Amino acid sequence: MLMKMMFIGAAHEVTGSCHYLNACGKHILVDYGMEQGVNIYENAQLPVEAPLIDYVFLTHAHVDHSGLLPLLYAKGFRGQIFTTEASADLCSIMLRDCAHIQMQEAEWKSRKAKRSSDVQYQEPIYTMEDADGTIRRIVPCLYDQIIDICEGIKIRFTDIGHLLGSASIEVWLTENGESRKIVFSGDIGNTDQPLLKDPVYTKEADYVVMESTYGDRLHSTERPDYVGELSKIIQETFNRGGNVVIPSFAVGRTQEMLYFLRKIKAEKRIVGFEDFEVYVDSPLAVEATGIFLKNSMDCYDDEAKELVRKGINPITFPGLKLSITSEESKAINFDMTPKVILSASGMCEAGRIRHHLKHNLWRPECTILFVGYQAVGTLGRALIEGVDEVRLFGEPIEVRADIRQLAGISGHADKNGLLEWIGGFEKRPTRVFIVHGEDTVTETFAQTLIDECDLDAYAPYSGTRFDLISNTFDYEATGIRIEAKKAKKISGVFNRLMEAGQRLIGIIKKSEGMANKDLAKFADQINSLCDKWDR
Questions:
Q1: d(CA 249, CA 217)
Q2: H helices then E strands: how many in the chain?
Q3: What local confidence, expressed as pLDDT, does residue 113 receive?
Q4: Do residues 156 and 144 lie in contact, with contact meaning Cβ atoms separated by under 8 Å?
Q5: CA dihedral 102, 108, 110, 115 (to 10 degrees)
Q6: pLDDT tens digits, residue range 323-379?
């Protein structure tokens, strides 16, 4: 009997979420996200090749949960991806945007390598075709409905209030008369956020896999006056003649900021600059804003839905400028009128925000305002921690602008919010696995659940394998730290060839049980190919 769980990504780390289930003869991933910032620990490889993965259950569209799905497709995955309707809509733009960024960065690295007589061509980790192929595998699902995946496997998505379409996922597994229920929290949302509903609790589970991003800290006990604080920062900056540059995640945080800015405009809070312009400089953010409105009645909270019923779009207003083309983006920095610029990425690691930092960081009259979590090792984290100089596009840029954070803006529940969510289970889980937190935070929060909630909690490292039937570990991994060392220079095309070989192995394994005639034909084709290239 097989009913196993393995932890792959976001184990003692915040990003790169990925968990593996093997049950009812099926291979399942819960999320397959991209790592952002410094990668502290080595991640275990998936235990099976991509063509053998039958299903992916996706908690939400943020790239640290979804961003490697096109790579899975590139390696041969052709199964189904189940997620909520709003997440499906967001993935349709976010995964294409990810592919575009991968292709741009590969092209830039190729040009740089060519100038230095290094490897002359870099392959992107996946292409737009891979993103498109992934999107075609997505199965949109409604909240709160039990979905029969196959014999022995059912799931249900519950609104977790972190992002439009975000969900915790209940997974029921039944095999050989044994049943287990596992709940994957996804990213648990903060309460009283603009636009989105508060997290919905789940009542029972045998096992829980939950995040711990802010498991060691508390948000303010009083609801922050976001509109008042943002108004003050804008007024002070405009009075100096500067721009307010907001590095903002294109999906989620940008729309929240537009919600606040609409209120500031409607209430005429900025004196002397009542008609100030706000630029959203991100094609992805522009598309995502449309998706927010499309899903408003399913995902918005009561306050936002009431505005919609009155015919008021809660995230648009006079003076809002949407920048799509690169020419429109460049023109923003040639206009010296004080303005607000919202641009991605939120951690300043890629995208158009880096151009705006280049043009505004050195200006003491400007403000760089951070409104989201900044992972260790990112440019955003370095700026918050007070670095004096950064390099952008090969040039040193002195940091003279006012670096600020908007206190309290967080899409993640704090420690108390996490405790309230796990406390919502009426049936005590047999065990709680703590993931998606910085190294020591996962351990600290696990200990909190043991001491304060009398729960059996554990923070696994990548590679840990657990038997869901016997409630025992098959293998307890230890964290293998990644040592800084000079990367071995391997052609991106060769990596592509290696991945093609892995895909072939996966297809071979999946072909067991085919007719002997077809297997023989397949073997002959492989041998013919080997004869051609075996030199």
A1: 22
A2: 16, 23
A3: 65
A4: yes
A5: -170
A6: 888 899 999 989 899 999 999 888 888 889 999 999 999 999 999 999 987 877 889
Query: In this predicted model, what pLDDT tens digit does every residue of 122-171 receive, in sequence order?
Result: 788 899 999 999 999 999 999 999 999 999 999 999 999 999 999 999 99
| Percent of the chain residues topping a pLDDT of 90 | 67
Q: Which of 415, 84, 496 is nearest to 219 (CA)?
A: 415
Q: Are strands 340-343 and 367-370 parallel, antiparallel or unpaired?
A: unpaired
Which residues pair with residue 399 across a beta bridge? Answer: none
The mean pLDDT value for 187-195 works out to: 90
Q: DSSP letters of 446-505?
A: HHHHHHHH---EE-PPTT-EEETTTTEEEE-----BPPP-PPP---HHHHHHHHHHHHHH
- The pTM of this model reads 0.83
How far is Cα of residue 76 from the mean position of the Cα atoms in its chain? 22
| pLDDT score of 487 | 40
Report the candidate in 242, 263, 284, 271 with the shortest Cα–Cα distance to residue 101: 284
Residue with tokens 């043009």: 359
**Nearest C-alpha neighbor of 130 from the set 63, 75, 185, 83:** 75
Cis peptide before 220 (omega within 30 of 0): no
Instruction: Give which of 425, 442, 502, 421 is closest to 7, Cα–Cα.
Output: 442
238-247, 292-301, 492-501 — which one is most confidently predicted on average?
A: 238-247
**Lookup result for tokens 């093997």:** 22
Query: Distance between CA 510 and CA 512 in Å, rounded?
Result: 6
Chain segment 439-493, per-residue pLDDT in tens: 999 999 999 999 999 999 999 999 999 999 999 999 999 988 886 444 444 455 6
The number of beta carbons lying within 10 Å of the beta carbon of residue 398 is 11
The whole-angstrom separation of Cα 75 and Cα 54 is: 13
- What 3-state class would DSSP assign to 323? strand
β-pairing verdict for 244-247 and 367-370: parallel
Asked if 114 and 122 count as a contact pair (C-beta separation under 8 A), the reply is no
Instruction: Report CA dihedral (261, 266, 272, 275) to the nearest 10 degrees.
Output: 70
**Do residues 95 and 70 lie in contact, with contact meaning Cβ atoms separated by under 8 Å?**
yes
Closest CA to 59 of 91, 95, 102: 91
Cα(72)–Cα(126) distance, integer angstroms:
9
- As given in the structure block, the two tokens for residue 274 are 């009542």
